[in-house]
Amino acid sequence: MKLQELTGKSIAILGFGREGKSTLRFLLWLWVTDIAILDSNPNLTEEVHTTLKENNVILSEWNESKDPLYQNKEIPSQELEIGMTNASIHPKIKIIWASVIPAKAGSSLKNISISQSWKCRNLNNDPVSSTGWQYFSALQIIGWENYLDNLGAYDIIIKTPGISPYHEKIALYREKLTSQTEIFFANYLGKVIGITGTKGKSTTTSLTHEVIQKAGYTSKLVGNIWTPVLDEVDILSCHSELDSESWKDRNTNYDSVSGTEWCSNYDFVVYELSSYMLENFEPPCYIGVLINIYPDHLNWHGNSFEQYTKAKKNILKQSTHTIFWPDVQSDAHYESLLPGEHNQHNIQIVAKIAEIIGIPEEVFRAAVSTFQPLPHRLQNIGTYDEITFIDDAISTTPESTIEALKTYGSRVDTIFLWGTDRGYDFTELIQVLITNHIHNIVLFPESGAKILSLLNKERNQRWSILETSSMQEAVDFAFTHTKKGSICLLSCASPSYSLWKNYEEKWEKFKEAIQEYISLS
To answer: What is the mean pLDDT of the chain?
Structure first.
């Protein structure tokens, strides 16, 4: 979607997490005049206000005497004024105030349009329109359970990746949906290396970025677990066709703007793309990379592995150069700090990327040899009481946990398994546990029950099993049962959402429980 298609439209931001907040900032830069923020969060109004404050926007009670152009229109009493300090969101745009309609828990707000109720201007009184004011029709904040009730009222819906388009209320308006990713690719003029895969994409993306930089090129790392792309790359100043009054003098040097770097500085943007981002979208990458595919996130993709696979393969359809792991695998071995055979596969993919770019072999090998593993990916967090604890909290599928077990083999004596039951097949995982003689197993809900039923079928095996919801109880079990000189592995084969909000929180609980046990010993 070109930038011109966004102007003059009513736009809903669907989902107000990290990327939704980034989208709000972007729409303010773009002078979008009618914005709705939609999220199931019952505290959405506070979230929006906090985000505005973090971007140098301050709040105060509505006072019509502050508005010299106020025309005595009937304005709901819930409206608040938004003011702005001397710091700016964008070097050309500074907001003074806006009327905001907050959501009420359980309420059902209708689409509203209060003419000229949101007024903005440059704090230095430099005109941004013939009157010195920029007029807005509405800013809606609609939270709680009714946030999807009125999607048909908006011209465009910018959806955050985590929300599935297969939701029954959202599916009705798929033609209105777009995303940060689609907006970026439609307007960015430089070379993008897009990388996806069920597992390994964060390591491969980060290593690619590192190799490019070590080779003397400029690179920006964005997407998925990284910073949202529209926070990092200024597609406004990249766009050559803009002729609006709001974008005059775009050749200003913006490098000094805190927290922002501009597209003209980069030889490559390295973009980590999830299946969510690739649903019904074929990005035109300079290099498109698909690492691997096996079942994951199927509930998001309409419970269809076919749809999930189709989304992943979209990375290859419009890319100038394509890389798929089975096509590039070799016997080459690289000296690296990354443990495991699967990471050698990731390195071989990056080697192919380097070859396409023209990076010399010796530069590539030097960069790989010093690259530090990302956190929570087979990370050694220390040896306590002669037991080594390995954090592989990012492993949220049976396949990734199997790769972890291949890395350490029979050195693992205790493993923690659990998480949200996404319908995974754990049969192969059980056989790997048997092959590696792992008998100490901690099972958490929900998937722990399914794993336990498979373990019980192996009547020739002697298991030492703890079923628990307590991380402290699990760690105490590990200290008691794990053989000295062996490994306790946190690699759960399922997502963490049944107990914690994400794998980072899971890891924090793991670390805290280890420290608690040591302090009491």
So the answer is: 78
